[in-house]
Write a structure and sequence with these properties.
Elements lengths: L9 H28 L3 H11 L11 H8 L3 H13 L3 E5 L7 E5 L1 H26 L5 H9 L7
Antiparallel strand pairs: 1-2
Helix pairs in contact: 1-5, 2-5, 3-4, 5-6
Length: about 150
């Protein structure tokens, strides 16, 4: 079954095409990051999200916010944080104003790895989009992705 199968509704066809594009992009990025940096796409994404935190009001993300940003459940995000912490890429510490809160920061080693991996991630994304643009079913989605701006945090 393809995204243009007449048995599918227009909405289902669009969803299939979007899902196919996402899968191809994620697979390309995953292979590249694993091969060159021993990082999964989710690990890279988590390091990237956490590296954007800052001190000050609302500067540190709660685990639910991190989970939403990397599109994982809170428990899966916690396991991912633990794996990266075990590798020395993240560190956790108690919130200085609320002893129940735990912050997670990227270590110097994590920031270095993220800096090294960013060009690999970006190149794999570009390659995946260029390849998908050759597919008539996916080309319109590629054009949309290329024109999107990052959402402004609420």
């Amino acid at each position: 079954m393809t995204a243009t199968d007449p048995a599918l509704t227009a909405l289902a066809q669009s969803w299939c095409a979007l899902s196919l594009l996402h899968g191809r992009i994620e697979a390309r990025i995953e292979r590249a990051l694993q091969a060159k940096h021993d990082l999964s796409a989710r690990e890279y994404s988590l390091l990237d999200v956490l590296s954007r935190q800052h001190d000050g009001d609302d500067g540190h993300l709660q685990m639910k916010q991190v989970a939403d940003a990397v599109v994982l459940s809170q428990s899966a995000t916690t396991r991912l944080v633990t794996r990266l912490e075990d590798r020395g890429l993240l560190e956790r510490y108690l919130c200085p104003t609320d002893r129940r809160g735990i912050y997670t920061n990227v270590t110097e080693a994590g920031l270095k790895l993220l800096e090294e991996a960013r060009p690999t991630n970006d190149a794999a994304l570009r390659e995946a989009l260029d390849e998908a643009a050759k597919n008539p079913e996916l080309a319109p989605l590629v054009r949309v992705v290329e024109t999107l701006k990052a959402p402004v945090p609420a």
